[in-house]
Design goal:
The protein has eleven helices and 19 strands. It has 470 residues and is of the alpha+beta class.
């Protein structure tokens, strides 16, 4: 009877593997299950080198998302392949193994939802490595730097230690409430079979980045009986924290109960916000929400989310900040959160809402009234609507997206918009110009809006405020 597995290289003398009805289990280290002959001392150095090579190939495959190689090198998966071969005639091996690989690769390529993750956790208790593979892949993004620093030989296992460092915050995994700057991974390798039998992170080797204030995730839940809530979790920054959540034209922090992530009244020294609200009308969806947070040192961060519909049943819409969104890291950590599939990406380019949403009073001056309309659209983040009103010269000077960038820079410099304190208008051929005196948190500007005879926008300027002599 020919061997089912064949090996070449430093350790091919170490093992003779023949058919057996007993599979090798994940994280089971005794090679006796396959009637193995362990490496003798004369080959120990070669086996150690081979085990390090297995760990290196495994890491490279994870970074490249080469799941076929990951399956090839995983003890649990290969034990299943072994069982297929022992239980079936050789003519079926190719078909059955291809179907098995296709199923496992498809599962590893997808982003698991709540119930899939729960199922993988249960399967993990029985030896399935899928969840461990996802977690380890999140620890070695393509930009991570790694090297094998130590191998330790045992009678039937080799432990390979890998030091991993992350050159920037964006490359850093978010694990256990911190952004890792460096960590250590541990691989258990069967030196005879050259398969990975277990892997994990040694938290004792963690160092972390000092992160700036940022909103990491957000959730929305709505039901037909009690309304709903929107939540957000910030990381980094210094207490106390103040929040301004706004959905459409409704500032949720006004007149609505606010809580922390554990259902207690909001404490400004916690970085988790929950705001409960009554139902929004169906016609408002998809609903644009903007959430801003400011910490005790004046740092601010603003994100946006688009809520598809009001009601979610017993589950939540969940959003995570890129790039952690693509790694499956940064999910809400408090409460019994069950995210609807798929988990969505937070919009980090959102513009901070005004402290009080501006609803300008009608002006008797038609030019000033038109200026108020454009300003209200800016405050609401409706930049595309403004860009549609540009004349040809403005379209050439202000391509799409430039007004949004300008407004974001203005808010970063001057703070949140508070409102209009006065207005005036003048004729400056060929334009009618509205000047609105705009009060921001830290500065005041004269906002000038120039309109052509046909009502299109010929210019937008924000100038330092100058008092006008009577």
């Amino acid at each position: 009877m020919p061997p089912i597995f064949g090996y070449s290289g430093d350790c091919k003398q170490c093992v003779s593997v023949r058919r057996s009805s007993r599979p090798v289990g994940w994280a089971v280290y005794s090679p006796a299950l396959l009637f193995l002959v362990t490496c003798v001392s004369v080959f120990a150095q070669g086996c150690s080198s081979a085990s390090a090579g297995v760990a290196a190939r495994y890491i490279e495959a994870l970074q490249k998302r080469d799941y076929k190689t990951v399956i090839d090198l995983s003890s649990n998966y290969q034990s299943q392949v072994f069982k297929m071969k022992t239980d079936n005639p050789e003519t079926l091996w190719g078909k059955l193994i291809k179907e098995y690989y296709d199923t496992k690769i498809s599962a590893l390529e997808g982003k698991p939802g709540y119930w899939q993750s729960y199922g993988e956790a249960l399967s993990g208790a029985m030896g399935d490595p899928a969840q461990q593979i996802r977690q380890t892949q999140g620890l070695i993004p393509p930009g991570a730097k790694w090297k094998i620093t130590e191998t330790r030989e045992g009678s039937d296992r080799t432990i390979v230690y890998v030091s991993v460092s992350y050159p920037s915050l964006d490359e850093s995994p978010f694990v256990d409430g911190k952004f890792l700057k460096a960590t250590i991974l541990e691989f258990d390798v069967d030196p005879a079979l050259r398969l990975v039998t277990g892997l994990g992170r040694l938290s004792q080797g963690d160092t972390q980045w000092d992160a700036p204030l940022m909103i990491l995730n957000a959730t929305w839940r709505g039901d037909r009986f009690s309304g709903g809530y929107i939540s957000a979790q910030a990381v980094g920054g210094t207490a106390p924290f103040s929040w301004v959540p706004q959905c459409g034209s409704v500032e949720l922090a006004k007149g609505l109960a606010q809580y922390d992530g554990f259902g207690r009244p909001l404490d400004p020294h916690t970085s988790h916000l929950v705001v409960r609200f009554r139902s929004f009308a169906d016609k408002m969806f998809p609903l644009q929400c903007v959430i801003a947070v400011t910490d005790g040192k004046g740092q601010t961060n603003t994100v946006g989310v688009t809520v598809p519909k009001m009601f979610t049943g017993f589950n939540e819409y969940c959003w995570i900040r890129p790039p952690w969104f693509s790694r499956g890291q940064g999910l809400p950590s408090s409460g019994n959160i069950q995210c609807l599939d798929p988990v969505l990406a937070i919009d980090t380019a959102a513009v901070a809402p005004a402290v009080s949403p501006v609803q300008s009073a009608p002006s008797a001056d038609p030019t000033a009234a038109k200026g108020h309309e454009v300003l209200d659209e800016m405050v609401a983040g409706q930049f595309g609507k403004i860009e549609e009103q540009y004349d040809s010269a403005m379209k050439a000077a202000m391509p799409p997206g430039k007004l949004r960038d300008f407004w974001k820079q203005l808010l970063a410099q001057a703070g949140r918009f508070r409102g209009v304190t006065s207005e005036r208008s003048r004729t400056q051929q060929p334009y009618q110009v509205a000047t609105l005196v705009c009060a921001f948190q830290r500065a005041t500007f004269d906002a000038e809006f120039a309109f052509d005879a046909d009502g299109t926008i010929g210019g937008i300027h924000f100038l330092p405020h100058k008092k006008v002599r009577p």
